[in-house]
Amino acid sequence: MSKNTDLDGYDAKTRRMMKGMAAAENRALAARAEEECECKEGMFPSIGRRGFLAAAGAAGAAALVTRGANAAAPPGAMDYPVQKDPTSEQGRLTSADGGYGSRSQFESEVRWRFPTATKESSWTMVPLDKSQGIITPSGLHFERHHGGIPNIDPAKHTLIVHGMVNQARKYTMADLMRFPSISRQHFIECSGNGLTEWKKPYLKTVQGTHGLTSTSEWTGVPLSTILREVGVKDGAGWILAEGGDAAVMTRSVPLDKCWSDAMLAYAQNGEALRPEQGHPLRLLLPGYEGNTHIKWLRRIEVSDKPFMSREETSKYTDLLNGGKARQFSFTMEAKSVITYPSGEMKLPGAGFYELTGLAWSGRGKVRRVDISTDGGASWGLAQLQTPIQSICHTRFRFPWHWDGKPAILQSRCQDETGYTQPTIKQLVAVRGLDGHAKFGSIYHLNGIQSWGVDSDGSVKNVHKY
Amino acid sequence: MSTNIKKLTLGGCCVIALSLGIANAVEAGSNYGHKYGFGTPASAADISKIDIDVMPDGRGAPPGQGTYAEGKKVYAATCAACHGADMAKPVKGTGAAPLRGGRGTLTSGKPKKTVESYWPYASTLFDYTKRAMPFYEPGSMNDNDIYAVVAYILAEGGIISKDTVMNAKTLANVKMPNRNGFISDPRPDIFLYD
Question: Shortest Cα distance from B103 to chain A (angstroms)?
């Protein structure tokens, strides 16, 4: 990419931009090499702030390369001429976009890729700092891939359901779409969301600290419908869900969950699933950690026991102080975060601000969200945007008159079971920090996030218990 | 048994709702009280083509076998480029995990999770290698080669002897060092209910 020959066909401005980003990528790689440590796991290379931010720029460079003619526009946008006075001439032609719209070229927020060693097994984070409402745009939904993104022709895709069933059956996408369908709005959160934040504030922005959660409207067939079709035999207790990607990703799921609210989802936000979200078919397990929502779903095997795949033994288990590890820790517990203002923003001065953010729980509806602007000394009740849905992002808002003095902003949510979001300190007291050499622990950090506001209005990621 | 109860319950709900004339009471996505029969029976051939999982008790383990000596060759040709010659230090920048070493480190504050130190079942090593390794050519190894490289990795980790021939039976009999290292999820583990 940094060779001039690769830049033939681009204008001078684009070439300069791409060279700059390639240089940034090289700097990021050099910074990472400095920070490599022997203690790291393959899945979690060490990552410094310099490396992280530079790598985000490099991801943008890659997008420019693949988008060719529209290199001047941000990902997801088209580069159109900007009119001097749109009221004095006709706008662009109806349907000139070919029949599928794009966002404004003035909107540029993108997912960031966490700089894992490979781009096939990696993840990207949602720009929550710019988020509005509760729905995550499909093109900004966080990603976690274990073997890249497969490109699957839905006309050729099948789901086979077998094992401890009365009759093993094979379903095409057309077969699955004939069954009675259901639409539900649910969040999916990666259990690694916040993994860098156990010991000390590490990433700077809410995109980095909380960007592995997203909400979509999902449409599909209840898994219970399919289980009734195949007939589950007595003694069955688990299923294996398997994806058709290069990782042939697998997780075991308790049969009870499959009978309750599990869904075979083929649509997201009103259209077919995005390829990054499992097109043409994914498993949806409301409230369970993200990796169990198997994408590109090709096989379900009903069994009496869990299968003990790599993703439920070697990975996605929670090593505690004392050396024991929790296994099958499926549920994403109640959590909230203030998205505005948040890390790396700068308030222009004292006065009125509407604090806003997201709350969610894998156990049901959010019941309430409390806000503190003094580091937890006092709390006030936030407004919740209705309708409040179960296992779904819930938008909260809180009016705040900033007096211009240093402040610490926190949100704390409670779900309908009564469970209240703990502090990071309370989580560490129970689970310890010995589970991971670098970060202290990895999965299931749902502690209260603190944003420090300095008297100059700058907002920083801080720890405050 | 539980499946029959659920069938009856759900079927019953629909019948009651309809008989009262409350159309809205039929929950979206319900099966409207009957089966549809969409799809086709999956043949044994359909299933065997993709049914690759291997369980801890050996279920699903295919025929075939491999030795330490064979596995050493397979490892050098297929695995070492990323996992490193000695298995303990993966090649930087590959994202590969260390496979050997780390025993006794899980309580150290600097845990080194490897196949040897952390993985509770040997079946997982066969299963994962077959489904996802090598990273850039997943699914390319034959069953004998996989058995062999499993024998090599486990022997290098001091878990089995170098003369153990790995096959469906011996795989299920391997006792991994961290076999009893896992507990079920006790959460919620913090109680702030009010």
Answer: 11
Q: Please state the ipTM of this predicted complex.
A: 0.87
Over residues A9-48, the pLDDT tens digits come to 555 554 554 454 455 445 444 443 433 333 333 333 333 3
Chosen from B4, B87, B107, B112 to mutate, greatest number of chain A CBs within 10 A: B107
Return the SS3 of A303: strand
Q: Is B164 a residue whose pLDDT tops 70?
A: yes
Instruction: Name the pLDDT band for B191 (thresholds 50, 70, 90).
Output: confident
Query: Quick check: A326 and B28 CB within 8 A?
Result: no
Binary contact (B94, A240; C-beta < 8 A): no
Of all residues in chain A, the percent with pLDDT exceeding 90 is 84
Quick check: A299 and B95 CB within 8 A?
no
* Architecture of the domain delimited by A158-323: Alpha-Beta Complex (3.90)
Among candidates A121, A168, A308 on the partner chain, residue whose Cβ is nearest the Cβ of B123: A308
| Interface test with chain B among A313, A370, A442, A448, by most B beta carbons within 10 Å | A313
Higher-pLDDT residue of B139 and B23 is B139
Q: Do A325 and B119 touch (CB under 8 A)?
A: no
- B contacts of A367 (beta carbons < 8 Å): none
The whole-number pLDDT of residue B192 equals: 76
| Secondary structure string (H, E, C) spanning chain B | CHHHHHHHHHHHHHHHHHHCCCHHHCCCCCCCCCCCCCCEECCHHHHHHHCCCCCCCCCCCCCCEECHHHHHHHHHHHHHHHHCCCCCCCCCCCCCCCCCCCCCCCCCCCCCCCCCCCCCCHHHHHHHHHHHCCCCCCCCCCHHHHHHHHHHHHHHCCCCCCCCCEEHHHHHHCCCCCCCCEEECCCCCCCCCC
Contact criterion met (CB < 8 Å) for A182 and B124: no
* CATH tag for A335-462 (out of 2.40.10.270, 3.30.70.1350, 2.60.40.650, 3.40.50.170): 2.60.40.650
Of A170, A434, A444, the CB nearest to B109: A434
Task: Identify the structural domains of chain B with CATH numbers, from first to last.
Answer: 2-34 (no CATH), 50-173 (1.10.760.10)
**pLDDT at res. B31:** 57
Residue A99 in this model has a pLDDT that exceeds 80: yes
CA distance B31 to chain A (A): 6
pLDDT score at B34: 76
